[in-house]
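Bug #77: duplicate submission created two jobs. Keeping one. Sequence:
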Amino acid sequence: MTLHNRKTVEARVRGSEIQQRPVACSFSFQYLLHYLKSLHDWLDPDTVKNVPIAKTAFAILRDSYHSDLSLRFQAEHIAVAVLYLALQIYGVDVPYSNKAQKKWWEVSFALIEPEVS
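Kept job's structure:
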């Protein structure tokens, strides 16, 4: 068996091993899409139409990939932080969040605590 054939066989064996293992992978953009959809249901339609929250959040998320942020934090935490920052940039408040017992970002994440007040 030539070296090329042996490498091909090894690659196929590794590929079949990988396919048999379930791969659980989550990405920040998946969570961000979900959170944006949820927040759009709460926000005023004019705000959603006129303020580029989604565009800004995705730009921040894209920029975050130039650092090791995605290696240090969970994908859902990054998505919440990016969305929170986008809302803060434009001064958009989620309706009724000041009267609620929990903030909008705390509903799904009991473990997330703000570091900056």
